[in-house]
Amino acid sequence: MSALFNFQSLLSVILLMICTCAYLRSLFPSIIDRNKTGLLGIFWKLARIGERKSPYVAFACVIMAASLLFWT
């Protein structure tokens, strides 16, 4: 089943995208900051969410990991 039709998989993909974009922005800020608008602006927005809401994103990652390990 694809991630579009399974809500738990969709949340996992979104959390992974947020964490990946924030990590890549910490390594290569010019690549992410170059594209603030348009289709590639989604990655800039995800990186900003990962930076500004990092305690909440980390908590969501821990909850998602626990749910995948123990309830799947």
Q: Termini distance?
A: 14 Å
Structural class: mainly alpha
The main β sheet shows up as:
none
**Spans with pLDDT under 50 lasting ≥5 residues?**
none
Strand content: under 5%
The percent range for helix content is over 70%
Which quaternary structure do these chains form?
single chain
Number of helices: 4
- Mean pLDDT, to the nearest integer, reads 88
**How many domain modules?**
1
* Total strands: 0
- Note the overall shape: globular
Q: Whole-number radius of gyration?
A: 13 Å
Commentary on this structure:
The protein has one domain (7-71). The chain is built from four helices and no strands. The longest helix has 21 residues, at 7-27. Helix content is 78%, strand content 0%. The model has no long low-confidence stretch (mean pLDDT 88). With 72 residues, the chain is mostly helical.
Write the topology of this structure.
Layout: H1 7-27, H2 29-34, H3 41-52, H4 54-70
Transmembrane segments: 6-24, 54-71
Family: Belongs to the KISH family.
Protein name: Protein kish
Summarize the structure.
Helices cover 78% and strands 0% of the residues.
Throw out a few tags for this protein.
72 residues; mainly alpha; 4 helices; signal; Ksh1
